[in-house]
Every structure is written in C-alpha cells, then in structure tokens.
Please model this.
Amino acid sequence: MTEPPFRRVVVIGAGLMGTSVALALRRSGVEVLLEDADPGNLRVAVSLGAGVPVTPPVSSGDATGGGPADLSDPTDLVVVGVPPAALGTVIAEALARFPAAAVTDVGSVKAAALADTRAHASAGPGLDRYVGGHPMAGSEQSGPLAARADLFDGRAWAVTPHVDSRPDAVAAVDQLARTCGAFPVQLSPGEHDEAVALVSHLPQVASTVVAGLLTTAAEGHLVLAGQGLRDVTRIAGGDPELWTQILSANAEPVARLLHEAADNLHRVAHNLEKRDAGEAGLADLRNSLERGATGVRRLPGKHGARPEAFSPVPVLLPDRPGELARLFADVGAAGVNIEDVRIDHSPNTPAGLVELWVHQDTVPALLEALAHHGWDVHG
Amino acid sequence: MTEPPFRRVVVIGAGLMGTSVALALRRSGVEVLLEDADPGNLRVAVSLGAGVPVTPPVSSGDATGGGPADLSDPTDLVVVGVPPAALGTVIAEALARFPAAAVTDVGSVKAAALADTRAHASAGPGLDRYVGGHPMAGSEQSGPLAARADLFDGRAWAVTPHVDSRPDAVAAVDQLARTCGAFPVQLSPGEHDEAVALVSHLPQVASTVVAGLLTTAAEGHLVLAGQGLRDVTRIAGGDPELWTQILSANAEPVARLLHEAADNLHRVAHNLEKRDAGEAGLADLRNSLERGATGVRRLPGKHGARPEAFSPVPVLLPDRPGELARLFADVGAAGVNIEDVRIDHSPNTPAGLVELWVHQDTVPALLEALAHHGWDVHG
Model:
C-alpha cells in the first residue's frame, strides 16, 4: 500500500467540481474535509463518500481572514470550488485560515480569480501559497449529485502559477491533478484565459446563439434536424447563471473573439448576398469553409492521436436489448479495440445505425470479423 | 416475396447520395440503372452492387433534352444526385428522356433547383412529373466509396412538391423515401429552404467560423480542448466545395440567419464589455444563455422522444479489447435498451469513460445490474 499523496485536503464548496475532486482524492486514500455554505450540498457530498464535514472550521484561524491558525494542522492543500464571483474572497480566507497549506481553486477563469484574491489578501498572509487550477472537464449538469470520481480521468488540468507562487505550492497542485487522474498543463493565468476563451467560451456562446434561434422555429421544421445541429447545440444546455459568471470573468478575451466570429458570420452573409456580382464572393466563401476544415483537423484526439488515425465502420443494428452486446462480443473476440462509438439519434427508426471508430490499421480485421458473424456493414 | 415498389429506377450521379439511394433500393429488390459522367465513380458504384451502368442512355430520347423516348421503358422513377449547380440541367434532361417517369433529386436546396429546372425545361415536357426531395442524412465524407444502404434509415426525407406536381409523382417520391428506410416530410420548396437554413446551413457556418478561429491558435492552447469544442466543430470538417454550392443556392434565408446570429454574438460581446457599467448587460447576457438552453430542449430526440426522457449513466471502462463487450453483455442480460453511447475522446487516458444513455425509467434497473457485475458507476 503506497502512502497517500496528501496528508489532508480541505475542499471548500461541494458542488459538481469540488465534490468530484473530493471523490477522486478519496479514491487514492486521501483524507478529505468538506465545507459548503449550503448544508444540503454538504450532506449529499458526505453521503456520496466524498469526505467528512467541517463544523466548526478545522483551523483555529478567523474564518473571515484574520490571524494565524494552528500550525500543527496536517492540511497540505485547500481546494476552493465556489462560483466565480466568490472565488477571490474564499481563496483569501483559505490562505489566512491554513497558513501552512497550498491553496488552489477549480474555477474556469484565472486572471480575475488571482486579481480578486490579491485584493482580498493584501493585508493577510501568503499569496505565494496560491496557485490557480482549472480541470478541463465538466457537465451540463451541476451540484454534488452529478459529481463523479472519474470526471477528470484523462483530461487536461490547467495549473496557473503567478509570478510569486512558491515551487512547493505548484508541485502540490500538479500532484492534485495527477491524483485526480488528469494531466497537468502549466500556463500563466493570462495565457490560460486566452486559451479557454478560444477552446471553451467562444464555442459556448456560438452554440448558445445557434440554439437560441431555434426558439422561434416551427415545430414542423425541427423534424428535419440531423446530428449536425444536435452536436453544435449540445453545450448550449449548460447552466445560464454559471455561464454568465464565467463569461463575465473572462470578458475581454471572450468579447474580442466574439466580435471576430460575428464579423466572420457577417462576411459569409455578405458573400452570399453578392454572389451574383461575380466569383470573388464565392471564392471568399470557399476560403472560409476551407479554413474551418483546417481548424478542426488541428484538434488533438483521444490518446493525443490525430483524429485521422481513426476510421468509422458503420453497422446496422436491430433496436432491441442485447444487440449491442452481441456486436461488442463479436468485436472483442476479434481482438479489435474500439476507440469510439456513435449511435444515430434520428427519430422514428426501427433500427439503429452504430458507427464503430477504430484505428485505421484494424479496419480490415474488424470488417472480416463482422462479416463472419453476419453483421450488416458498409465501409 | 413481395413485389418491389418500383419496376425500374434510374439514378443519375453516383456520388455519396446517389449511390446510397441505389444501394437502399437494391436492398428491396428494385432494378437500378446507374449513370455518372465520371467513369471512376460509376465503376465503384457498380462494384458495390448499387446497380447496372447505362451506356448508352436507356431511353431513345435525346440526352440533351430533345424529343420523346421509348414509352415502353419500364422506368418509374429517376433520381438525380448531382452537385447543386448542375441540378436544373440534369433534372430537365431527365424529364425529357423519360417521359413516363417521375423525376426527383436529392439536393440540399429546393427552390433554386425548381427554378433552374423550370428555366431549362420551359420548352420541354412534363415539369408536373418533377417533385423535389432531400434526405436529411449525409457525411463529412463524399463519393461512392462512402455510400451506405442504411444511410437514410430512420431519417427524415423532405418531399417538396411544387404547385403543378402530379399526385402520382408525389406518391412515387414518398415511396422512394420509405423504401430507403426514411420517413417522408412534405413541405413546399420555399418552406424547406427556410427550415434547412436554420437546422443545417446556419449550424454549418457557425461550426465553420468557430473552427476557423482555431487555425491561428497556439498548439499548447489546443491541448485544453474538451468534448464541447469537438462537438461544436465536427461538421466544419465537411467538403468546402460542396458547401459553397449548397450555401450559394440558399443564399437569402441563410444570409438573413447569419446576420441575426452575428448580431447576437456582437450583442453578447457588448454585454461583456459594458459589464462594469451595471446589471443591465449581465441580465441581457443571462437572457441570451437562457434562450439557448430553451432552444436546445426543443430538438426532437431518437424515436421522436424529447431528450429529457433519456438519462446518462457513466461507467469507467479499462481501455482494452473486450471490456465494452463485457459491459454490453451485462446490460443486455439485464434487459435494458441502450439509446446512445458516448465514449470520451480525451487524450492521454489509460481508461475510458463511457456514458450509457437509457430511458430514465430503466436507470434503477441498469444501476443495479452494473453494480451486481462490479462496474465502476456514478450517476
């Protein structure tokens, strides 16, 4: 039995993220203490096995940011998982209450959290023990009931030291990411915010705007919706209040990208409107579409492999219990590893279309195995 | 053995869509003749079993739109599957060459196809035998090699009669949709184009614009990309030339929606920029996000059910052959029907997270079965 990587971790805020961190730490045998202003959240998190509740606060310090605490407290790390608007206050309080611990958070925006913390901690101790963090995982759901110990498995976890962060505090947050099954990626707070404006906040708003235009559509038109629209709009189902706070906290980089995206949409519209005037508009439209196709190819896939290493093999499946089992048993028996599965969402179908995504080298073996077992395949 | 629903169908254009229609018809025992200007495409389609090549043209008519053909020709239906820019010409030719057949197409835009056909067929016979069609299925891939007999199974198939369309021609295209496994949805050409501008063309351009902004991102920033960005940008990988033609052919409704979406993006950006000026910007931002969440809930799910009837059950899966088989065998043995499966795409993970989507009524039974078999579940 290896030693747990932390003696004790305090998690402040038992929502989706905080509770998931706590569950992941418990998985590695770490002692976890939980705090939440909402007793309901706390009760749920404790009942899920995420840790032990703290009442009154474990340290002897003043919970509003006052004097020194009990230095024999074995807390190595405090993880703050509260809404963006409260981050600075709670982080500053944690630095005061736990004067021997590293403090991190799991908020989606890092420069604002640091600035708020600095403002609140200016008269207090130890900003050098604060290192921001942001696990790149989430859910359209929220609250501790949606929490999962495996939420961070295989995900990136941004670790965002500021110029005064102590190396041992940075190491502790790196270790937190690894203990939760993620891989740490170090960036400055500002660089992080630029990155997530592009890879998370821009697509969130784009998805929201497309989905918003569906609100006035005729019901009879929506029956024509296919998988493309579903994929584009899925994340628009996220919590509006949480996203209001996230976007507000990263206002500048997000606004810049939104203006750029809006200009590009207007430009495509103008290209379409003047299409009869000549070939220039069409060429510009084609150029926009080519640029998009190039951009999507830049995204890293599972295992860091490029998506083009994987190929889809479509299989027709009767829509009744046990057919997927039979399919995967046949595939497993052939020794082929499935990287992804897509099942068609279309309405009114008596049969399902399943796409098995496998490494392209294994396609011939898979096709042979499927044919051998009588599956209806075209690829 | 039931009678095939058509005596003979001629498919003109052996690309992804035309070849898939041909394969679907062959599945029902229909005699299919194939034409394509590209002998390579034709050879591939024939070798896939999609039908018999036509050289020279089956009818005795003039292939460029001239006089009457052999009326004993048993062709009931001609399906035109050529690029949008060529549709009008080829449909008009088909009406002239096959004077006893209904003629349809599988193009993505219907008013322009009708207008082009009318222009080309003005001196010729039988516009009343033309009824537009648009199966709501596709792929990021193109060409006959990507064709599948099951491409249309369970999909909507827009059937777009014009005011002069003959009822027997409409019935033939309805029958084509059903024979291909789809369900026909009748709309006027203009109404169809309004609908697909919203459910297909707008999300295509939005996806393209988001993906286009990834082209200049630092590689180190893209490592932070999660599933949300992947979903939003997937369809941006489609063929730029084909999409140039589709968007151009539906320019007016698409441009109108793109301007509206662009204005909404600018508006969110302005809300973010003036957030310090007061609560009005924030309230407006929150309102946009709520509108998006409302819009996405309007989309019909599989079997026409609302997505909220389905719930995800996340299961942690060792990343090796056979584990999915074991999982689905256990689920199948419990008699639970799986509506969808999502496998996480994150890089660098030694284990996979699988979300089983099931009807919410079956969640308890599924959880019990999974727990019984020792699966690592949180839900």
